[in-house]
Amino acid sequence: MMGSFMLLELVGTLKESQKLFFRNVKLMSCIFLLIISLSSILFLSCMLSIKPPITDFSLKARLLPATSPGTPEFANLLSSLKGDLRLFVGLEWIFVIAFCFSSLFFATASILASAVTYCGKDMSIKELLSRAVKSLKRPFLTWFYITLLRLGYYLFLIAFLVSLVLIFDLTFTEPSLSSIIILLPAIVFEAYLAVVWNL
């Protein structure tokens, strides 16, 4: 009985959320276009900035087997490969942080736009974005703590799996019944924790 009531409540919430877009089409479409355009620009700049280091790395990696170890050319090629790899990893970290921050900002702006529309108020896009920036501190702290909790869960899971591998001599490289029995509850529990922590 309780489950069917919760399902009806969920369906009602979903129907109400569809109507929000049509209550304030201008604000919601501006937010939608802003999210799509800025995310696309960020993704495109990521792809364009990492393409040269990857191309350079792959060309130099092809030359590596042809050079003999111990020669100055080999050392120069190896140091150049390390530099390209450092550049690639640095760029990827910059874009991962930018993607996380923009996702958090756009989620905050979308929630504020939905709340303003639901209350029947009208707000300009500039005012909405400034409010989203001002209220970003609390979602950022929540996101930071969720990330720490997730990192702790992964470290616990790795320690648990390493101890199982050492004690029972298990292998997780090839699918076996023991690896499926151990990893499936871990994945299901991680999905449950992701829902609970993000509420």
Description:
With about 200 residues, the chain is an all-alpha fold. The two termini are about 25 Å apart. It has six helices and no strands. Helix 2 (about 25-65) packs antiparallel against helix 3 and helix 3 packs across helix 4 (about 125-135). The chain has two domains: about 1-135; about 135-199, no CATH class. The protein has helices at about 1-25, 25-65, 70-120, 125-135, 135-170, 175-199.
Biggest sheet character: none
Q: Can you count the beta strands?
A: 0
Distance between the termini: 24 Å
> Number of domains in the coordinates?
2
The helix content is: over 70%
* Basic shape: flat
Strand share of the residues?
under 5%
Main attributes of the structure:
2 domains; single chain; mainly alpha; 199 residues
Helix-strand blueprint:
Blueprint: H1 2-23, H2 25-63, H3 72-119, H4 125-134, H5 137-168, H6 177-198
What is shown here, in short?
The chain is mainly α and 199 residues long.
